[in-house]
Specification:
Oligomer: single chain
Order of helices and strands: EEHEEEHEHEHEHHEEEE
Bound molecules: zinc ion
Shape: globular
Amino acid sequence: MTDLELNVGECIYCGDTKPPLTREHILPRGLGGNQPPTGHSAALVLQKATCERCRLLTSRIEEECLRPMMDYARTRLGLKRKDRAAAKMEMKVDLLDGSTERRDVDADEVLGPIIVPCYYGAGALTNKPFTDETAPCDYHIIIVAPAHKKAMEQSARAGVELYADSKRFAQMLAKIALGIAVAQFGVRGFEPTVQIFILNNPNEYGHWVGGFAGTPEAAVPTPHLHRIQLQTKQVSAGTFIIVEIQLFAKYGGPTNYVVVGRPL
Ligand SMILES: [Zn+2]
């Protein structure tokens, strides 16, 4: 990806131009978005790109994905801000006498699991009429680092609890995709489709977000932590700008995609 348009001057979600507009990390900071991705010399940041109202809404989306779905793994991978990275994390331990207890153990003793939804085909690509029924998805569990032996001693089983909200996660993917498309084409350079979905209609997720659940393409490992790829695709329903997003690709995370807009 070259010639990125990084100074926006309006909110990429609602179009508001009134200051203050704040900068927007395309990939959430909590996923390493403050680091330059492979092939780039700087982090992907859109300047003057979010109004205050949309910043609050979208940071809540990120928070509700990162914490319950991947907090342990982010700690193990050093993706959490130092001042927020807990030295102790909670682990559930089944003891040999049959009882269960919750223990605070050192963060580096906890295994680093992530739960990632892997969606089926997006409705927008197949002309399927939109319904707000829950679109199905599979869940992939990835372990980025094993539990340290000490946490496993004297226990029959040790684990942590994760919770995945597949609608929220789809909104986070759409947010990343919108940022990438704005960087590539400019805010006026394409017709976006996912703004309302991101801001206030999570039930549209089966329409705009899809994946390769149940196919071998679902999880193709690559050497990079994340893989993000923008393409324009012609399907029977029309021509769309599609962003493939494979979070934690290095560890076999599944490929999902966002139907982020139409070319002008
Ligand atoms: Zn806004």
